[in-house]
Design brief:
Layout lengths: L4 H30 L7 H27 L2
Helix pairs in contact: 1-2
Length: 70
């Protein structure tokens, strides 16, 4: 599917944003693992970050499906 240039640019920016959010979640989880940080809400935070990463994957997949739909 060919999108108008202004829309395609915004879709590309959105994909970049999604990639950045996913990367930040991964970085936070990695930092917690490397530093072996322990705090009462750690498990809740890890679960939330994993959910955000899954949502990012789903969102990116939906955008890709839409764009490649002819």
């Amino acid at each position: 599917m060919t999108l108008p240039n202004d829309i395609q640019k915004k879709v590309d920016q959105l994909n970049s944003f999604i990639d950045n959010v996913r990367a930040q979640c991964t970085d936070i989880r990695d930092d917690m693992d490397i530093d072996e940080l322990e705090f009462p809400e750690r498990e809740d935070l890890e679960h939330s970050l994993e959910e955000i990463e899954i949502n990012c994957d789903d969102s990116e997949s939906h955008l890709d499906d839409f764009i490649t739909n002819d």
